[in-house]
Design a protein that fits this description.
Helix content is 20%, strand content 31%. The protein is an alpha+beta fold. The longest helix has 24 residues, at 2-25. The termini are far apart.
């Protein structure tokens, strides 16, 4: 009896050991007749498709379309050596002067497959070396084709193949409230896209440029965004980001961009002639006020009053007099001095243009042939 019990217990032990081994190594051998196993719970869901359709309200397509043509610009400027830096007494009082090159950051927009880039003049002004870094990590040295301090624009050129090019939009069709994206390289952190709306149009008299007709936006623009792109929801270029209003140096919701219509004129002039040639008629204009209107006996309530006329200038030769009110230039209405300057500057020197003039109680149309706008004199240094 003992022997039988011993054999039974040994057999059960062996069977249990085999069961546990099979259950551990080959659990499917123990499956029921349906071939099913205990269902397992998925701990992680499968990742979504990378190219899935964007959610409603997303600006993904516009950002992807425009970002490829927006570049980062790194500049270096050799530090000026103090002429007294070798004087031991100078070094004793002021120490060794730091002569390391100055580094600058900015952005730009590729506007031509041949390598032309639009950016701000203040981004590259005085730079000895300019390096352009594309969004696909390619980089190369750029040379300055020309610059226009009056509009704070400059044109660069790089020699690289298969360049992405941004599509030029229509800044003249913009309205306050339209959504826009600002793309650039703020603070050197890398390309960044921010969104906002058009807050105002035709901003001027800000003291930033000679010719001001800014698009104002609340899309975040910070140092390093200068020269970058302001685009619409289709990814088309509307302006070149150029300045911010800030008390701290960072974004406060007020940024300014140069309209692409202006940038395109500057680009074409620089590429064709190496410089920007603007029209000029030789007058001293002022915004029309009730006091000036009463002083000169003007009946008009709108336009720009001429308070001075340069002797032997184009306007004087055409018959413009102090007290005349210019209401339109080449068929385009003008309401303030900034609009008059911009409209006259856009005229082609040597080609007559029609000016609508209110002279006291009479309306006249005077043809003026503009000359070339003189370059501003630099202050002595």
């Amino acid at each position: 009896m003992k022997r039988t019990w011993l054999l039974f217990s040994q057999a059960v032990t062996v069977l249990l050991a085999v069961y546990f081994v099979v259950a551990t190594l080959k659990p499917d051998w123990l499956a029921g007749p349906q071939g099913g196993t205990t269902p397992t719970v998925a701990l992680f869901q499968a990742p979504a498709e990378r190219n899935a359709a964007p959610p409603p309200g997303s600006f993904r397509v516009a950002a992807q379309k425009a970002s490829a043509a927006v570049v980062s610009i790194n500049t270096s400027k050799t530090a000026r050596r103090n002429p007294n830096s070798n004087d031991p007494w100078f070094r004793f009082f002021f120490g060794d002067q730091d002569n390391e090159p100055q580094i600058g950051l900015g952005s730009g927009v590729i506007v031509s497959p041949t390598g032309y880039i639009l950016t701000n003049n203040h981004v590259i002004e005085g730079a000895d070396e300019i390096e352009v870094i594309l969004n696909d990590s390619r980089h190369g040295r750029a040379r300055v084709i020309g610059s226009d301090p009056d509009s704070d624009l400059a044109v660069l050129k790089i020699e690289l193949d298969k360049l992405p090019v941004i599509v030029l939009g229509n800044s003249d069709a913009l309205q306050v409230g339209d959504p826009v994206l600002a793309i650039g390289n703020p603070f050197g952190v890398g390309q960044t896209v921010t969104s906002g709306i058009v807050s105002a149009l035709g901003r001027n008299q800000l003291g930033i440029n000679t010719f001001e007709n800014f698009i104002q936006t609340d899309a975040a623009i910070n140092p390093g965004n200068s020269g970058g792109a302001l685009v619409d929801i289709n990814g088309n270029l509307l302006g070149i980001n150029t300045a911010i209003y800030s008390r701290s140096g960072g974004n406060m919701g007020i940024g300014f961009a140069i309209p692409v219509a202006t940038a395109q004129q500057v680009l074409e002039s620089i590429v064709k002639d190496g410089q920007v040639t603007r029209g000029w008629i030789g007058v001293e204009p002022s915004d029309l006020t009730p006091e000036l209107a009463e002083t000169f006996g003007v009946k008009s309530n709108d336009g720009v009053i001429i308070t001075g006329v340069l002797q032997n200038g184009p306007a004087a030769g055409a018959g413009i007099r102090p007290g005349d009110v210019i209401t339109s230039v080449a068929g385009k209405p003008v309401h303030n001095v900034s609009e008059l300057l911009t409209s006259v500057a856009a005229l082609k020197p040597g080609s007559p243009a029609a000016f609508a003039v209110q002279r006291q109680d009479r309306t006249l149309e005077i043809s003026i042939t503009p000359g070339v706008r003189p370059k501003p004199r630099r202050a002595p240094q």
